[in-house]
From TrEMBL:
InterPro entries, per the entry: Acyl_CoA_acyltransferase, Bact_Acetyltransf, GNAT_dom
Name of the molecule in the record: GNAT family N-acetyltransferase
Sequence ranges assigned to domain N-acetyltransferase in this UniProt record: 4-151
Pfam families, per database record: Acetyltransf_1 (PF00583)
Sorted UniProt keywords: Acyltransferase, Transferase
Length: 152
């Protein structure tokens, strides 16, 4: 693995993001990437979208939102999606992306980041717990709300 880095999503990387592959069973827990990318068009001031590159290759995508004016607290600082290409999973790419998100939250003066996900055997819960998210509640649709603290 080369040195990982994050860059803002761009016209040069969007096709690669849309072509990230998933492991069998993961598709049921993740909406198409294009849904997440659309958030930038709708809310460019609050949306934070980055690609994770290994050398020149796009190996991951992370999308979050920072919106202090959102009425529901768990949406004010939220990780909406994280995709790591199937061939690059379990190499630290996802953990790297979460750390980049935490750095962004810290720079914005935010003290925590939430993530909302569906529980399930092949779902993302084990990953989120491994990188430090802890369940703090549930949505009205029985999705898990988990949170990671951002230390000053």
């Amino acid at each position: 693995m080369s040195e990982l880095r994050v860059e803002e999503l761009s016209a040069a990387t969007i096709v690669a993001v849309n072509n990230l592959s998933l492991r069998p069973g993961q598709e049921q827990f993740l909406a198409p990437v294009s849904y997440g990318i659309a958030a930038t068009v709708v809310n460019p001031q609050t949306s934070w979208q980055r690609v994770v590159l290994d050398g020149d290759e796009v190996v991951g995508f992370v999308s979050a939102s920072f919106d202090a004016d959102t009425p529901e607290e768990h949406f004010r600082s939220v990780l909406w999606r994280i995709n790591v290409d199937a061939d690059d999973q379990r190499r630290g790419v996802g953990s790297f992306a979460v750390q980049a998100l935490i750095e962004e939250a810290r720079a914005r003066g935010v003290d925590h980041v939430n993530v909302i996900y569906e529980a399930g055997e092949d779902g993302p819960e084990a990953f989120f717990r491994r990188v430090g998210f802890q369940p703090v509640g549930e949505t009205e649709y029985s999705e898990v709300i988990a949170q990671i603290r951002v230390d000053g």
